[in-house]
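Case study 2.
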Amino acid sequence: MKFSFKPLNDKVYFKNSMRMWLNVVFFVIILVYVVLVGVVAFIVQNKGSEYTEKALEQGLVSSSSDLDYKRGTIVDTNGTVLAESKTYYTLVLEPKQMYITYRGEVEEDGTDNRSYPYVENTVKVVAKITGKTEAEILKLIEDNKDSSYLVLQEPVFNEETGEPVMVTTTSGKVQKKEAVRFEYKSKAEFESYKLSPDKEINGVTIDHRYVGCARFEEHYERVYPNGSLASNVLGYVQKDGQGAWGIEESYQKYLEGKNGYEYSYYDSELNAQKITTDAVDGDTITSTINASIQKIVEEKILEFDKTWDYDNVAVVMMDPNSGEIIAMASNEGFDLNNPQDLSYYYSPEELAEMTDTEQTNALYKMWRNYCVSSTFEPGSTWKLVTVASALEENVITEKSTFNCEKYVNVAGTVISCSGTHGKQDVAGAIAHSCNPALIQISSLLGGEKFYAYQEHFGFGRKTGIDLPGEAKGILMDAELITHPVELATSSFGQSFNVTMVQMASAFSSIVNGGYYYQPHIVKKVTDSKGITVKENKPVVVNRTISETTSEFMRRAILQTVEAGTARSAKIEGYSVGGKTGTAKRGVRSDLIYVLSFIGCVPVDDPQVVCYVVVDNVHDEEKKASSSLAQGLFADILKEALPELGVYPEGEIDYRIDETVIEDNGIDESGDELVLDADGDGIIDGTNLPLTSENIAVYLDKSIEEAQNIIDGSNGEEDDEDSSSEENTDSGEDNSESDEN
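Prediction:
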């Protein structure tokens, strides 16, 4: 066998080898370039300011400064400005650069014949604009000849005492100074002297070529044009530029922008040059708040405040068909332009005696948004949730009836009602705010389903409203609520806590057809070009009830206002539906009440939901009467509804039983009187043992009637009758409902 070999082609080998080496070299060059870019980027990011300072020291750069971004504006739903950043200017002098240009020489004998045209001309212009003397400005410049960045400042004095405000520095105590603020007209006047060759000051012509080495820098101050309006909703901006509370905090990342910077320097021929990177301004926030409605709400709270003494009052107004908050206010607002000011709530003497901790706590209380951060027992407003849940589970129907003899014995605990209502249907139980009826309904529903519907309606967790500090409320443990007494008291809104925004959202779903919308305070976010970068469209979180149940609930709450416990909430020309609430707060024997009313207008097609809460009225006759909350509700909506485009309907066909429930003057909501809330055999709110004699005195009853209450004979008999009748009705109506 013979083998043949081909000789290698030297040219081909050389080309392949060169190609390989060229690729390697090219790759190395690219790698080095990438590394260099990374190093430069790192230096710019982390060492930029340090090298700028070194350049300043060497005279390469005349000055450098940040260009402040403009924080985004907050407007109401109609474009009314609620918060904005107002422009102001500070004057920056550059003494070091003023002495670079001079005329004349220094003689051999040391005589200095130099004159400095920038100093001579700029001092005159600055003195005129600032109102100071030329001697004052000249001394300031001469004392800081080596400075390339000198901000004109003024010493600060205490407004009340006139004493200088002192601060501690590394060199000891010195008087505090703050930059002098100028308006745009001062900047424009300075620029005019730089451009006009024939302007004079005190008979001396200014050489415009040498007006410089000074500039007006643009800054921004957060301003709230409407003072305290919507203060708990808006929040404020701290000195470090961070939002605190409200929209200012929750939308910080949109409202803040990015600072730019500016470097001024002189080239080799001493010509002034400038490098500028523009600032990026913050975005505009369009809120759901209607400023006109917010003003009405706050003014009505102030009027209420002049008549009644109480701990807190708060109002939430919502669009039930979108979850948008129209207005949100309490009696604890603050001056947005001076958020540290406690003088509205405390006298100078009280403030002087307060410790730092006490003042801090007082500020937090003032800044806190009661409507989203405070929790309380809802009282009888909750009865709507209980009834709606039972209707959805088909354990009752609209025609189910219940008997009320004022008292009911639940596992040894006697629970009272506001009156003896006798036999009544479900709508009547709501209108009368009847506790025994609700106890029977909750018993049919059962503890497990009751708890499930609490969660179903969004309680026990945050709603997700776009405001900081939201509380989630407190629900009774799922196992405890299955106990008869706990379930009974929960049925009419006791033994657990909610927030106002939770109740307003749940109620909205009950009256709008069963759609639970996520509540929100901001409609959209737009950038400086008007482009929408975020939009909060209505979001249906849950379907709580059917349209059929919702339609019945609207009829029931209409009856409550027209002929039930909520007659004080009537508004002429409008169909108003709603429910009252009265619940105890804190230690029950202290008899501190939270009064409330929640309602919607118009009932047939709700456009507005309004929830009013009044906490601890300091009036013995009215402290348990929800008529105060109803009255405030009506006063607000009388003015607010036309502003919202909801006008009177003329003659209204109410389609209800006109039987009027008498006003007993106290506890108009018909909320509970638990004679033995703790199950310890002691009449609630007293030290009296639970005996027939004591109950007879306590309730102004005969001994026999009191004994019947303890035995529960009336309550048990009524429960059996109503339950039997109710179950029969339930079966009949379920079939009808299914057919429909």
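Residues 292-332+377-734 form a domain with the Beta-lactamase fold (CATH 3.40.710.10).
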